[in-house]
Hints:
The structure holds 2 protein chains of 2 kinds.
Chain A: H1 10-20, H2 22-60, E1 64-68, H3 72-81, E2 89-90, H4 93-98, E3 103-113, E4 125-129, H5 138-144, E5 154-156, E6 167-170, E7 173-180, E8 191-195, H6 196-208, E9 222-223, E10 225-230, H7 236-246, E11 250-254, H8 255-298, H9 300-308, H10 313-343, H11 347-354, H12 363-394, H13 397-402
Parallel strand pairs in A: 4-8, 5-7
Antiparallel strand pairs in A: 1-10, 1-11, 2-9, 3-4, 3-10, 5-8, 6-7
Helix pairs in contact in A: 1-10, 2-8, 2-10, 2-12, 8-12, 10-12
Chain B: H1 2-25, E1 32-33, E2 40-41, H2 44-68, H3 72-96, H4 106-138
Antiparallel strand pairs in B: 1-2
Helix pairs in contact in B: 1-2, 1-4, 2-3, 3-4
Amino acid sequence: MSENGYPLSAGRLSWENLRRRPFRTACLIVVVSILAFTLFGGSILVSSLQNGLDSMSKRFGADLMVVPAGYASKAEAVLLRGEPSFFYFDGALVQQLAETDGIVQASPQCFLTSLSADCCDAPVQLIAFDPATDFVIQPWIAEVRSGGIGEGQLVVGSRITVHADNTIQLFNQYYPVAARLSETATGFDTSIFMTRNTMDFIIDNAHKAGYNFISDKEPEGSISAVMLRLDQDASAKSIAYAIKRDNQNVDVIVSQSILSGIAQALRGLIVYINSFSIVLWIVAVIILTAVFSGSINERKKEFAILRILGATRKRLIRIIVSESSLTGLAGSLAGIAAASLLVFPFSTYIGIKLQLPYIRPGPGGILTLFLFSLVLSFAAGPLAAVYSAFKIGRAETYFTMREGE
Amino acid sequence: MKNRILSGAGVIVLGLLISLGPQFLFKVCGPVVSHDGGGSTWMKCHWSAQAEIGVGALAAALGIAILLFVSRETRIGLSVGVFFSAVLAALIPHVLIGGCSMASMPCQTLAFPAITVFSILLLVFSLGNIVYLIRRVKQ
Lengths: 405, 139
């Protein structure tokens, strides 16, 4: 029986051993928790970045985007980060582009920005599409709302909060929100979508309320971008070149170039995180092996006394393995808890700082990564103690007790 | 003695982070300039940060009291106060006052998550201290 009156089982002995050496135990737990922190935090990061890239590729929809000359970087900022912007050119270009060889669909979009004091405490991007030709926004709306949106209705991105009565304020007027779109990790998450007629209606109301739009062109009748879908066999780069050659006043953005640039940055980061996790796991196992080996060597006589008192070799091994399992479990849970306090509350901030598409995995994905990290980090403890456990199990009690005499 | 210093200092640090963090370290959003030139208005997150000054300062003051009082029973009572201050600190940005409407605003991306994390740490810390002190009183 232990001093607290509990039966002196292998587990109890291990617990008491750990409790009596708080500094050593704390050090072992810290090593495992750093490992668990890196494994869980890193795997959530990698999974979120992969989710973000998948969603972004799915949502881009158009192969090419034609914008006024000099506004390509602003248009990319609208697409990737939702930085509000507006620029206009003549809508007559849509028909010309639709008739170009290799282009299957052409649909215009018109951009406008809201006021800071409006719906969202900051200016947001308003995007109007043509329901008759649109192939980018409507399939996405169809995922959350059948039948599309009617005139006068709005659809908002996932990061925009609407009033309890499902309305939002734009230019001092309230408009109904028909649906909120799923997260995309693009600038669309902080954008508001509507049909072209609805945007004209909003602009009209804004004019009546005394708002004027500062731009070289008023938005009515103009467009900001033309989204193009190409024939499967067509080369995006050569069509982009041909459009630019025929129209000096436009810039052409190739979606594949943006996506491949992001994918390349992402690949580098993922390789770095994975390599770091593997190296850290190996280092942690080496450190734990050294610590367990040293500590068990120091406690050889204690184990010899246990053998004299009747403990079998198997029981000694069980004591050492359960000691390492307890530290492994405590360290793993502490590390995962610490990583959770960082990766979950700050996920939007991490995405913004990385400037990469970032979507946190769902509950199932998080649970899988939790179990993966828990098993790997927990295993480091017992794995590191196996060698020392078998060494002490093989030692001859008589010689161990006489050692040093 | 060791518990008194550790728990008191921990509560003071976390209380100060909750109180002053949104003002200096992880700032909330600035004022919105009115479009008609009628000055600027503060957004909801500003008032959340103002409320956190009081709640965080209260937690820090309780931390000072934990440092000063020797009686374990008194420190249990003070830690219970810290626990509820932590709950209040976490509720202010999410339920009681709130913040900006867009999830990508500085208050929603950095300030509120930081307040939430420090509130959780304060909550766990005070709960741990309560359990420890109750066990010591019973011994």
